[in-house]
Amino acid sequence: MLFLNVLFGVSAVLTIASSLLCVFTKNIMHACVYLLGALLGVAGLYMTLGADFVAVTQIMVYVGGIVILMLFAVMLTGGKEFVSKAQKLLNLVPLMGNKWTFLIASLASLVFAGVTVQLYFKLPEFFKTVDNTEFSSTVDELGKLLITDHLLAFELSSVLLLGALVGAAIIARPRKEEVK
Amino acid sequence: MNSTAATFFTSIEAVNQAIVTLSEKVGFNTLPLVSLTIILVMALILTLVVATIGGYGTYAERKISADIQARIGPNRVGPYGLLQPLADLVKLLSKEDIFPMAADKFLFYLAPFLAILGVFSTLAVLPIASGLILTDLNVGVFYLIAISSLVGVGVFLGGYASNSKWSMLGGMRGASQIISYEIPVTISILAVTLISGGMSFGKIVGAQGGLPHQWFLLHNPFTFIGFFVFFVGGLAETNRAPFDLPEAESELVSGYHTEYTGMRFGLFALAEYAEVFVLCGVATALFLGGYQLPLDVTNLPQIPVQVIQSVVFVMKSLFLYYVVIWIRWTLPRIRVDRLMSICWKYLTPLAIFNLVGVSVWEVVFHGQSLAQLILGH
After folding, report:
1. Considering Cα of B299, then B303, then B306, then B307, what sign does the dihedral take?
2. A108 vs B302, which has greater pLDDT?
3. Which is deepest, A107, B65, B185, B194, by most CB within 10 Å?
């Protein structure tokens, strides 16, 4: 259990600290890097729950893909010049945009709070199940579930991803006039 | 539970006895504390060993390139120039730590550490001998692919933060190259996990034998091609020639680490050489039988067997390391527009073809290898 406690402590501190820094920094490039720290921390939290496959997928998708993509996007669209100069109360937090983002964010936090409260009342049972499944391999079960119970969702998501790939290729390909 | 180096050591009778007596003396169960200490010490040793191998990679590179070009190479510091890496280290440490005025300080300092972190985190699952693996994760190979993408972030940030055109171009090339070549590499690895039926390195190595015809390289014609797809993709992921476009010295000065001096440059160089060793180690474990010996080791004493196994593993890896250096000093650099077409038009379809081929083979021949079919057992 010592391992788990140490891992949980490190991951939790990493997640919370990076998230706060990510929101409060004024440089959007730094925000991306702090986000990287937060995502790694969440991967660590998954590990403490025994969900090794999910944890590694988190690193694979977010660190290897999304954060690099965000870094590329920020760099190609101006980079660190995107710095908030807002002084008013609503806009004090940099990188937070206008009242619409605040409205959506408060709605999202309400939903999140609802889910948290629901989970909180189920906590005793929740921890029981975690103790039982601790460190058993989740890969086999995930694979079986994906090709039996959730086959439709699996196939649909693969079609969706293929569509995204084809769409990206169509957008990126040179137009006919340019080729001539 | 995932088996780790700690579970291996604490399962030895003498160590177990020592823990029990220690627990009695201190008054509480010291097993978790001892396990943690064992893991930390093992991690430190492994890191130091691989860092040394990485440092001597520079020496090997210079000696072998000198040999290929009919020169002598470093021969002044120590016998045969063997202490050259130490001299280099002293030089790098004593150099001035220059920080470009227009650079982004935080990212500039962070980038080399991200690159080092990405490489050395992969050591956690590198199977050196049976039992001598820091942690035999159930998702070992997947973890390795995932965590090594941190190197791409490090390379990109290093290029961006330097605020120099050479660095920027090198960083962008590096990141896009690493992301693209991850795909054929991952698909070739997927073919191997399909045969072995698991993603943990212990399982993959255990499914192979000590003799070449029991290796996954010669398991069937598809894995034979798959090994070369993996190796070529791996060369590109580690930014080695002929894919060393991110640091193409004839166009980009030195690419993403142009502005780095002293030990910060040294960290990038160390990350590159250590990553080449990890690549060779992974290729060995996946396709070349890993640490397997060509005899039955179940009844032999464990410690000597492990020593021989780790020697076998390191020798195979170092042979591949030699091949990597050999390729670098033989082939010219590839052109930048052909880099992406090699990945997307040749390697990726080939890797997918291999994956389908391996699946069909597994179904048709019930997982038997080519040698088993020919020899009939």
Report:
1. negative
2. A108
3. B185
